[in-house]
Amino acid sequence: MSSASAPGKIILFGEHAVVYGHPALAVPVTQVQATATVAPSSRRGVWVEAPNIGLSSELSDLAPDDPLGAVIRSVFSTLGVDRPPACTIYIQSTIPVAAGLGSGAAVTVAVLRALSSFLGQPLPENQVNLLTFEIEKLHHGNPSGIDNTVVTFARPVYFVKGRPIETFRVAVPFTLIIGDTGLSSSTKGVVEDVRKAWKASPEKFEKIFASVDRIVQQARRTIETGKGSALGPLMNKNHALLQQMTVSSPELDRLVSAARSAGAEGAKLSGGGRGGNMIALVQPEMTEKVSQALYQAGAKRVLITTVS
Ligand code: PMV
Question: All domains of the chain, ordered by start, with CATH?
Fold first, then answer.
Protein backbone atom coordinates (compact mmCIF):
# COMPACT_ATOMS: atom_id res chain seq x y z
CA MET A 1 0.00 0.00 0.00
CA SER A 2 1.26 3.54 -0.75
CA SER A 3 -0.01 6.84 0.51
CA ALA A 4 0.90 10.45 -0.32
CA SER A 5 -0.41 13.93 0.42
CA ALA A 6 -0.16 17.43 -0.94
CA PRO A 7 -1.18 20.76 0.62
CA GLY A 8 -3.47 23.49 -0.64
CA LYS A 9 -2.07 26.80 -1.81
CA ILE A 10 -3.02 30.44 -1.84
CA ILE A 11 -1.85 33.21 -4.13
CA LEU A 12 -0.59 36.21 -2.14
CA PHE A 13 0.01 38.62 -5.02
CA GLY A 14 -0.01 38.67 -8.80
CA GLU A 15 -2.90 36.45 -9.94
CA HIS A 16 -4.02 37.00 -13.55
CA ALA A 17 -0.99 39.19 -14.37
CA VAL A 18 1.03 35.97 -13.94
CA VAL A 19 -0.73 34.48 -16.98
CA TYR A 20 0.92 37.26 -19.05
CA GLY A 21 4.47 36.56 -17.85
CA HIS A 22 4.52 38.79 -14.77
CA PRO A 23 5.60 37.40 -11.38
CA ALA A 24 3.30 36.17 -8.61
CA LEU A 25 3.84 35.06 -5.02
CA ALA A 26 2.08 32.01 -3.62
CA VAL A 27 2.41 29.93 -0.47
CA PRO A 28 1.30 26.45 0.63
CA VAL A 29 -1.66 26.12 3.01
CA THR A 30 -0.85 23.05 5.05
CA GLN A 31 -4.04 23.10 7.16
CA VAL A 32 -5.82 21.55 4.20
CA GLN A 33 -4.53 18.49 2.33
CA ALA A 34 -5.36 16.04 -0.43
CA THR A 35 -4.38 12.43 0.24
CA ALA A 36 -4.24 9.46 -2.10
CA THR A 37 -3.80 5.86 -0.99
CA VAL A 38 -3.25 3.01 -3.43
CA ALA A 39 -3.89 -0.54 -2.22
CA PRO A 40 -3.87 -3.93 -3.96
CA SER A 41 -7.39 -5.13 -4.70
CA SER A 42 -9.17 -8.45 -5.21
CA ARG A 43 -11.43 -6.75 -7.79
CA ARG A 44 -10.17 -6.75 -11.37
CA GLY A 45 -9.02 -3.46 -12.82
CA VAL A 46 -8.02 -0.09 -11.44
CA TRP A 47 -10.70 1.42 -9.20
CA VAL A 48 -10.99 5.03 -8.18
CA GLU A 49 -12.84 5.86 -4.97
CA ALA A 50 -13.29 9.54 -4.18
CA PRO A 51 -16.12 9.76 -1.61
CA ASN A 52 -15.81 13.58 -1.37
CA ILE A 53 -17.14 13.91 -4.90
CA GLY A 54 -19.27 10.75 -4.88
CA LEU A 55 -17.00 8.94 -7.34
CA SER A 56 -16.59 5.18 -7.39
CA SER A 57 -15.56 3.91 -10.81
CA GLU A 58 -13.29 1.59 -12.71
CA LEU A 59 -10.70 3.53 -14.70
CA SER A 60 -12.04 2.50 -18.11
CA ASP A 61 -15.54 3.74 -17.16
CA LEU A 62 -14.34 7.29 -16.53
CA ALA A 63 -15.08 9.78 -19.32
CA PRO A 64 -12.14 10.17 -21.75
CA ASP A 65 -11.64 13.80 -20.64
CA ASP A 66 -11.95 13.08 -16.91
CA PRO A 67 -8.93 14.74 -15.21
CA LEU A 68 -8.57 11.97 -12.60
CA GLY A 69 -8.53 9.34 -15.34
CA ALA A 70 -5.92 11.42 -17.16
CA VAL A 71 -3.73 11.56 -14.03
CA ILE A 72 -3.82 7.79 -13.59
CA ARG A 73 -3.18 7.07 -17.27
CA SER A 74 -0.30 9.54 -17.30
CA VAL A 75 1.41 7.55 -14.53
CA PHE A 76 1.01 4.28 -16.45
CA SER A 77 2.26 5.73 -19.71
CA THR A 78 5.18 7.62 -18.10
CA LEU A 79 6.32 4.49 -16.26
CA GLY A 80 5.68 2.18 -19.22
CA VAL A 81 3.10 0.08 -17.33
CA ASP A 82 0.99 -1.72 -19.98
CA ARG A 83 -0.89 -4.04 -17.63
CA PRO A 84 -1.58 -2.22 -14.37
CA PRO A 85 -2.03 -4.44 -11.32
CA ALA A 86 -5.52 -4.68 -9.77
CA CYS A 87 -5.70 -1.88 -7.25
CA THR A 88 -7.92 0.74 -5.65
CA ILE A 89 -6.96 4.40 -5.51
CA TYR A 90 -8.67 6.17 -2.57
CA ILE A 91 -8.72 9.93 -2.74
CA GLN A 92 -9.68 12.23 0.09
CA SER A 93 -9.34 15.95 0.35
CA THR A 94 -10.08 18.66 2.89
CA ILE A 95 -9.29 21.36 0.32
CA PRO A 96 -12.41 23.26 -0.77
CA VAL A 97 -13.08 22.67 -4.48
CA ALA A 98 -13.12 25.51 -7.05
CA ALA A 99 -12.19 28.04 -4.39
CA GLY A 100 -8.68 29.07 -5.44
CA LEU A 101 -6.96 26.77 -2.97
CA GLY A 102 -5.35 24.50 -5.52
CA SER A 103 -7.53 21.46 -4.83
CA GLY A 104 -7.20 20.04 -8.36
CA ALA A 105 -3.40 20.32 -8.34
CA ALA A 106 -3.14 18.82 -4.85
CA VAL A 107 -5.25 15.78 -5.76
CA THR A 108 -3.14 15.29 -8.89
CA VAL A 109 0.16 15.53 -6.98
CA ALA A 110 -1.06 13.11 -4.29
CA VAL A 111 -2.23 10.55 -6.88
CA LEU A 112 0.96 10.82 -8.98
CA ARG A 113 3.10 10.24 -5.88
CA ALA A 114 1.04 7.44 -4.32
CA LEU A 115 0.48 5.52 -7.57
CA SER A 116 4.07 5.77 -8.82
CA SER A 117 5.33 4.59 -5.38
CA PHE A 118 2.81 1.74 -5.40
CA LEU A 119 4.24 0.68 -8.77
CA GLY A 120 7.74 0.74 -7.28
CA GLN A 121 8.92 3.68 -9.43
CA PRO A 122 8.35 6.89 -7.43
CA LEU A 123 8.35 9.88 -9.78
CA PRO A 124 10.94 12.60 -9.09
CA GLU A 125 9.50 15.92 -7.90
CA ASN A 126 10.27 17.76 -11.13
CA GLN A 127 8.33 15.20 -13.10
CA VAL A 128 5.42 15.35 -10.64
CA ASN A 129 5.39 19.11 -11.21
CA LEU A 130 5.45 18.81 -15.02
CA LEU A 131 2.78 16.11 -15.17
CA THR A 132 0.56 18.10 -12.81
CA PHE A 133 0.93 21.12 -15.09
CA GLU A 134 -0.30 19.00 -18.02
CA ILE A 135 -3.34 17.92 -15.99
CA GLU A 136 -3.98 21.52 -14.84
CA LYS A 137 -4.42 22.39 -18.51
CA LEU A 138 -7.46 20.08 -18.55
CA HIS A 139 -8.90 21.91 -15.53
CA HIS A 140 -7.96 25.46 -16.46
CA GLY A 141 -7.24 25.68 -20.18
CA ASN A 142 -4.25 28.01 -20.08
CA PRO A 143 -2.82 27.92 -16.55
CA SER A 144 0.32 29.81 -15.60
CA GLY A 145 1.75 26.82 -13.71
CA ILE A 146 1.76 28.48 -10.29
CA ASP A 147 -0.63 26.00 -8.62
CA ASN A 148 1.28 22.85 -9.54
CA THR A 149 4.59 24.45 -8.54
CA VAL A 150 3.55 25.55 -5.03
CA VAL A 151 1.59 22.39 -4.33
CA THR A 152 4.39 20.07 -5.52
CA PHE A 153 7.23 21.78 -3.67
CA ALA A 154 5.15 22.95 -0.67
CA ARG A 155 7.30 26.07 -0.34
CA PRO A 156 6.64 29.81 -0.78
CA VAL A 157 7.26 30.46 -4.47
CA TYR A 158 8.11 33.52 -6.56
CA PHE A 159 6.70 32.34 -9.83
CA VAL A 160 7.30 33.55 -13.37
CA LYS A 161 5.78 31.46 -16.14
CA GLY A 162 8.41 29.44 -18.01
CA ARG A 163 11.27 30.32 -15.63
CA PRO A 164 13.02 27.97 -13.20
CA ILE A 165 11.35 27.71 -9.79
CA GLU A 166 12.40 30.34 -7.27
CA THR A 167 11.42 29.83 -3.66
CA PHE A 168 11.63 32.75 -1.22
CA ARG A 169 12.37 33.19 2.44
CA VAL A 170 9.83 34.41 4.97
CA ALA A 171 11.91 36.42 7.47
CA VAL A 172 9.09 36.91 9.98
CA PRO A 173 6.04 34.60 9.97
CA PHE A 174 2.74 36.35 9.33
CA THR A 175 -0.90 35.41 9.81
CA LEU A 176 -3.47 35.27 7.05
CA ILE A 177 -7.18 34.71 7.26
CA ILE A 178 -8.66 33.06 4.21
CA GLY A 179 -12.35 33.87 3.79
CA ASP A 180 -14.45 31.81 1.42
CA THR A 181 -17.40 33.44 -0.37
CA GLY A 182 -18.86 29.96 -0.84
CA LEU A 183 -19.37 30.78 -4.51
CA SER A 184 -17.57 28.41 -6.82
CA SER A 185 -16.08 30.09 -9.81
CA SER A 186 -14.45 28.76 -12.95
CA THR A 187 -10.86 30.00 -13.10
CA LYS A 188 -10.79 28.98 -16.74
CA GLY A 189 -13.80 31.19 -17.54
CA VAL A 190 -12.44 34.19 -15.63
CA VAL A 191 -9.01 33.84 -17.28
CA GLU A 192 -10.74 33.77 -20.69
CA ASP A 193 -12.76 36.89 -19.83
CA VAL A 194 -9.59 38.73 -18.81
CA ARG A 195 -7.99 37.71 -22.10
CA LYS A 196 -10.94 39.12 -24.04
CA ALA A 197 -10.77 42.38 -22.07
CA TRP A 198 -6.97 42.54 -22.57
CA LYS A 199 -7.42 42.06 -26.31
CA ALA A 200 -10.05 44.82 -26.36
CA SER A 201 -7.93 47.30 -24.34
CA PRO A 202 -4.32 46.09 -24.44
CA GLU A 203 -2.78 49.36 -23.24
CA LYS A 204 -5.05 49.63 -20.23
CA PHE A 205 -4.35 46.03 -19.22
CA GLU A 206 -0.60 46.24 -19.78
CA LYS A 207 -0.54 49.22 -17.41
CA ILE A 208 -2.51 47.31 -14.78
CA PHE A 209 -0.20 44.29 -15.13
CA ALA A 210 2.90 46.50 -14.83
CA SER A 211 1.52 47.96 -11.57
CA VAL A 212 0.85 44.46 -10.25
CA ASP A 213 4.42 43.51 -11.18
CA ARG A 214 5.81 46.38 -9.06
CA ILE A 215 3.59 45.36 -6.13
CA VAL A 216 4.85 41.76 -6.34
CA GLN A 217 8.50 42.93 -6.27
CA GLN A 218 7.83 45.17 -3.27
CA ALA A 219 5.90 42.43 -1.47
CA ARG A 220 8.70 39.94 -1.98
CA ARG A 221 11.27 42.38 -0.56
CA THR A 222 8.96 43.10 2.38
CA ILE A 223 8.47 39.42 3.19
CA GLU A 224 12.17 38.62 2.81
CA THR A 225 13.28 41.50 5.03
CA GLY A 226 10.58 40.99 7.65
CA LYS A 227 9.08 44.45 7.40
CA GLY A 228 5.64 42.89 7.34
CA SER A 229 3.70 46.05 8.11
CA ALA A 230 3.97 47.25 4.52
CA LEU A 231 2.30 44.14 3.17
CA GLY A 232 -1.25 45.17 4.08
CA PRO A 233 -1.29 48.32 1.93
CA LEU A 234 0.25 46.33 -0.94
CA MET A 235 -2.63 43.84 -0.67
CA ASN A 236 -5.14 46.67 -0.82
CA LYS A 237 -3.46 48.07 -3.93
CA ASN A 238 -3.40 44.67 -5.61
CA HIS A 239 -7.12 44.23 -4.85
CA ALA A 240 -7.91 47.58 -6.48
CA LEU A 241 -6.03 46.47 -9.61
CA LEU A 242 -7.93 43.16 -9.63
CA GLN A 243 -11.15 45.15 -9.47
CA GLN A 244 -9.97 47.07 -12.54
CA MET A 245 -9.41 43.73 -14.27
CA THR A 246 -13.12 43.04 -13.45
CA VAL A 247 -12.35 39.83 -11.56
CA SER A 248 -13.73 40.86 -8.16
CA SER A 249 -17.40 40.52 -7.24
CA PRO A 250 -19.79 42.15 -4.74
CA GLU A 251 -19.33 39.18 -2.38
CA LEU A 252 -15.53 39.38 -2.50
CA ASP A 253 -15.58 43.16 -2.08
CA ARG A 254 -17.90 42.81 0.93
CA LEU A 255 -15.52 40.37 2.64
CA VAL A 256 -12.48 42.49 1.82
CA SER A 257 -14.13 45.63 3.29
CA ALA A 258 -15.37 43.76 6.36
CA ALA A 259 -11.86 42.43 7.09
CA ARG A 260 -10.32 45.90 6.76
CA SER A 261 -12.98 47.52 8.96
CA ALA A 262 -12.44 44.86 11.63
CA GLY A 263 -8.74 45.66 11.86
CA ALA A 264 -6.98 43.63 9.16
CA GLU A 265 -3.85 45.35 7.86
CA GLY A 266 -4.87 44.66 4.29
CA ALA A 267 -7.09 42.37 2.25
CA LYS A 268 -7.57 41.23 -1.31
CA LEU A 269 -9.22 38.54 -3.36
CA SER A 270 -6.99 35.58 -4.07
CA GLY A 271 -6.91 33.35 -7.13
CA GLY A 272 -9.19 33.48 -10.14
CA GLY A 273 -11.80 35.75 -8.51
CA ARG A 274 -15.56 36.29 -9.08
CA GLY A 275 -16.04 33.88 -6.16
CA GLY A 276 -13.71 31.63 -4.21
CA ASN A 277 -11.51 33.18 -1.56
CA MET A 278 -10.12 36.42 -0.25
CA ILE A 279 -7.20 36.81 2.13
CA ALA A 280 -6.62 39.26 4.96
CA LEU A 281 -3.36 40.03 6.74
CA VAL A 282 -3.88 40.23 10.50
CA GLN A 283 -1.91 40.51 13.70
CA PRO A 284 -2.39 37.19 15.58
CA GLU A 285 -4.47 38.88 18.32
CA MET A 286 -6.94 40.15 15.69
CA THR A 287 -7.78 36.76 14.14
CA GLU A 288 -10.92 36.23 16.23
CA LYS A 289 -12.38 39.68 15.55
CA VAL A 290 -11.63 39.60 11.81
CA SER A 291 -12.92 36.02 11.45
CA GLN A 292 -16.22 37.01 13.10
CA ALA A 293 -16.52 40.05 10.85
CA LEU A 294 -15.98 37.84 7.81
CA TYR A 295 -18.70 35.40 8.88
CA GLN A 296 -21.05 38.32 9.51
CA ALA A 297 -20.29 39.64 6.02
CA GLY A 298 -21.30 36.30 4.50
CA ALA A 299 -18.15 34.12 4.53
CA LYS A 300 -19.06 30.44 4.38
CA ARG A 301 -15.73 29.25 5.76
CA VAL A 302 -12.74 30.91 7.37
CA LEU A 303 -9.26 29.37 7.56
CA ILE A 304 -6.40 30.82 9.55
CA THR A 305 -2.90 30.08 8.34
CA THR A 306 0.58 31.19 9.37
CA VAL A 307 2.98 31.79 6.52
CA SER A 308 6.49 30.83 7.59
O1 PMV B 1 -8.06 30.30 -8.79
P2 PMV B 1 -6.69 29.76 -8.60
O3 PMV B 1 -6.16 29.87 -7.21
O4 PMV B 1 -6.47 28.43 -9.21
O5 PMV B 1 -5.70 30.77 -9.30
C6 PMV B 1 -5.79 31.18 -10.59
C7 PMV B 1 -4.69 32.12 -10.82
C8 PMV B 1 -4.70 32.78 -12.17
O9 PMV B 1 -3.57 33.65 -12.19
C10 PMV B 1 -5.96 33.60 -12.33
C11 PMV B 1 -4.60 31.77 -13.29
C12 PMV B 1 -3.27 31.06 -13.38
O13 PMV B 1 -3.24 30.05 -14.08
O14 PMV B 1 -2.27 31.53 -12.82
Answer: 2-159 (3.30.230.10), 170-307 (3.30.70.890)
